[in-house]
Hints:
Layout: H1 6-14, H2 22-31, H3 33-50, H4 64-93, H5 96-102, H6 113-126, H7 131-147, H8 150-153, H9 155-176, H10 179-195, H11 200-216, H12 220-236, H13 240-256, H14 260-273, H15 280-296, H16 300-317, H17 320-336, H18 340-356, H19 360-376, H20 381-396, H21 401-415, H22 421-436
Amino acid sequence: MTHYDDDVLILYTLEPTYVPDQADLESHLRKCNDCDRRLQAIREMDRSFAAGDTWQSVDERIRPEVHLAQFRELSSRYRSEDEEARQLLAPCLSDPVRFIWENVPPKKRYRTAGCVRLLCMESNKACETNPLHARNLADVAVTIAETLSADAYGEHIVQQLHANAQCELANALRYLGEFRAAHDSLDRARRAFQKSLAPAIDCARIDYIRATILWKQQNWADGLPLIQKTADVFLRHRNLSRYNDAKTIEGGMLFDQHRFSEALVNFKTVYDSIDSQNEPPMAARAAGNIANCYLELGDTGSAGTYFLISLQLWEALGFATETARVRWSIGCMALAAGNLREAIRRLRASKVQFEALHMFHEVALITLDLMDALLASGESEEVRELSTLVVKHVRESSTITGALTAAAFVREAAALGRLTRTTVQIARRYLSGVHENPALIFCPPRIDPPI
């Protein structure tokens, strides 16, 4: 049985309607002696605080009305700082070059908590589209946080701002593949959170980011138990959204270890907990993950069902990139099912879609999938031309040298007339992995020259 933490019970004691899942909590309390006992202890403490003689010797400065006035003043100040930060930074936030030229850190007008909060928020949003800009935004947030005065904001607030900025910097570094630097930022964030007396859920956020980095590094031994522990913390705090995120990462780790049945259980747990009407992106992503598990397990019927659900949700949302990814997966499903003509048709269409989106890393992978399908169908004449295109698309994607080595290896094998489906699949797995983990080394299989 999962128990409620003291923070939720205190909130329920102060004002029951403030608890989002009040009915669930009350049902739980009727069944759980432990939570009910802690609730009674909290209520007893609350009664003692309410007694007049408890507070007779308390100094005038800590009267509730004084604290309330201070809180209102602080809240007003935060709103004012946030608005000022947006006015100052708005012209350069979406322009990476202008942001660099603005040279924010030395200028005193930017040294506010509002600027740190805004930079952290914008860094988080930029990670998917421009991770280099996201890193620059977070790096400046860290620099500003280090200049803030504890006298002006309070030591705990300053440390929390610094910790949040370090978390966003680590997140951006993760997208850039700078894993060692990301781990260092997370270490600094944890130290700052400890000084700020942050709750367990803040520290769990650090562990969540670290676990995703360990996943990219293929460090399953450390990453898997860490993300499982993090998921448990989110569940205890009834933060279902973050819990689902953690379970998705756990499923991804299991999937990458070819533990497809276990990954499927994780992804179904997430999918079953989601209201697809209110959270369509998460539902679409979970359905796609389930479909990929079924595909690897050889159940193409179930895979097709969930791919269709995912496709319909992404299309309804108007997400062109995600829609194209699912259509690509359906082409791969046709290949796995042995429906080669359908696979070739769908993979050609996906290649055109991703070329239009200028997503050339994906184009290179689709080209290899198409080559695999053509080799399986005995249509090898086009394969040599496509092998040359793989090198072109890898260059267009600005990928690192290892990926170019793998692409050149495929082209050479095709030129020798020794390209096989196994060779294509080895190169495809490497190109897929090196995009996430630039430290991977390509180890080509032996290709005998023609006799």
